[in-house]
Design a protein that fits this description.
The protein is mostly helical. It is built from 4 helices and 2 strands. A two-stranded antiparallel ribbon has the order 1-2. The chain is elongated, with a radius of gyration of 17 Å.
Length: about 150
């Protein structure tokens, strides 16, 4: 069971990493709905991106996501010899806590308890991104401790 869960986790993290590489190289597919949006001059009808992610930072995020996939592979012995060291358990658990924190949010732009609502990003964050972070966090904890 844990091995199948790990395969799903690795696949999801690898796919999300590849999407980030695509964006870092200039791809535009779905780029408009993955960055939080804020009202312009207080008008909710007019929204602008909260920030403009640089290509390098996007590549760093992609590398981080791929590293998470590799850590899960190491934990369960997929493509690497299985590592049962406590330090790996704690690293994966810390990443799971980061996933949970992302799902809960910063109380302003992202997460279930965000204040800025009404944009396409906000709707996708509520129904896709935050639940995905919850599931990834739970899956990481299961892989780390089972």
């Amino acid at each position: 069971m844990t091995f199948v869960l790990a395969q799903w986790l690795v696949t999801i993290f690898a796919v999300i990493s590849l999407i980030h590489v695509y964006w870092a190289l200039g791809g535009q597919w779905a780029a408009a709905v993955v960055v939080p949006q804020v009202p312009v001059d207080g008008f909710v009808a007019t929204l602008r991106p909260a920030f403009k992610p640089s290509g390098w930072i996007t590549l760093v995020v992609a590398a981080g996501l791929l590293t998470i996939a590799a850590l899960v592979c190491m934990r369960v012995g997929w493509w690497f010899p299985a590592v049962h060291h406590k330090a790996l358990q704690w690293v994966i658990s810390a990443i799971a806590l980061l996933m949970f924190a992302r799902a809960i949010g910063d109380s302003n732009l992202v997460g279930f308890f965000k204040e800025v609502k009404g944009s396409r990003f906000a709707r996708l964050d509520t129904w896709v991104y935050s639940p995905l972070c919850l599931m990834l966090g739970a899956g990481l904890l299961a892989v780390a401790w089972v």
